[in-house]
Amino acid sequence: MTEVQLQEFKLEPDSELRFEVESKNEKVVLEVKSGYAELFGTELVKAKPYEFHTGAKVAVFTWHGCTVELRGKTEVSYVAKETPMVVYLNVHAALEQQRVAAEQESTRGPVTMVVGPGDVGKSTLTRILLNYAVRMGRRPIYVDLDVGQGHISVPGTIGALLVERPASIEEGFSQQAPLVYHFGHSSPGENLELYNTIVGRLAEVIAERCENNKKASTSGVIINTCGWIKGDGYKVLSHAAQAFEVDVILVLDNERLYNELKRDMPKFVKVVYLPKSGGVVERSSTQRAEARDARIREYFYGKRTPYYPHSFDVKFNDLKIYKVGAPSLPASCMPLGMRAADALTKVVQYGSGHGPTDADDPVPAAAAAA
Ligand code: ADP
């Protein structure tokens, strides 16, 4: 459906304007005319134009009421009165109490993990909670374990960021000095052993850094995860929960997962069920793949601030290409004392034209990933 070019919306307190930009090369400009509004936890500046491009799915929420103007062609745009924002705010308040306690007792702040199936708003909730924390003067650590979309660096990696200011409306969280581990696939299922190894490594490094940064330590960690929650996906989540020693797990919109985690997690881990927002948009696998491509492009070419990458020639003979994960062998063919799973984190060099061969001096996978 095509909407008119200029639209004005009056939002009552506790409601949100949702809109999507679909058409190719389309641009929609948003401006708050009066009142206060926020976008996934970042406060919008009055009378400042914000641009949204193809693929954007946006919610402008207001606690106090506001008037908003949209310029450009939106696919849909409507005002919703039913949102779970009060529930999310209560979660933030509970985390904030734990941060205050951590500050007083000089202990670690809450480590929170957001889980749920695909397209329930996990990344959005993570962003909201981080934004609220940083707006309270905290310095939380943002961890993204979602290799499928990858909001830190590019898809196929996992990473962490120290969040020092709210996410920019158009560009998300500042990506200065992120800690990133390469995985190389868009789903953990492609190499579970490697995924668990790098998740464990990331958790260790964060724990070490927190020891030297009291402010970050008391502010806690918020972890976004993949939407894969069944079978091995569940094991991956449990492993991550253990590796990061999480205190709180927020389960979005899946009662089965909630009950399984309640049953399996130690008693001190609080498992909380949360409703998803009716505004979260489901994406097809093509749209996900497109979003992945766009993210990789953005990494090299920039989004708002264009980068100018340049190419230079390297002789093919000078290149050494390594791959993590050797073909798995049956246990009977393995050298004594080696597990089949070890092969999955082994670094192998691609020989010239003969496919992968063993590296002369294999690098331990964890060191290679770092
Ligand atoms: P997940 O991380 O669970 O896959 P996301 O948080 O990425 O889900 O949300 C999916 C899409 O829905 C995103 O494009 C996001 O911008 C959009 N979205 C999330 N919440 C809302 C909302 N309340 N209104 C409109 N769109 C939303």
TrEMBL record:
Q: Which UniProt keywords apply?
A: ATP-binding, Nucleotide-binding
Q: What is this protein called?
A: Protein CLP1 homolog isoform X3
Question: Which InterPro entries does this chain map to?
Answer: Clp1/Grc3, Clp1_C, Clp1_C_sf, Clp1_N, Clp1_N_sf, CLP1_P, P-loop_NTPase
Record GO terms (molecular function): ATP binding; polynucleotide 5'-hydroxyl-kinase activity
What highest taxon heads this organism's lineage?
Eukaryota
Q: For the Clp1 P-loop domain, which residue ranges apply?
A: 116-302
Domain Clp1 C-terminal per the UniProt entry, residue ranges:
308-350
* GO BP annotation list: mRNA 3'-end processing; tRNA splicing, via endonucleolytic cleavage and ligation
Against Pfam families, the record matches this protein to: Clp1, CLP1_N, CLP1_P
Q: Name one GO cellular component term.
A: nucleus
Show the stretches that span the lipid bilayer: none
Kindly give the SUPFAM superfamilies that the UniProt entry links to this protein: P-loop containing nucleoside triphosphate hydrolases (SSF52540)
Domain (Clp1 N-terminal): residue spans on this chain: 10-101
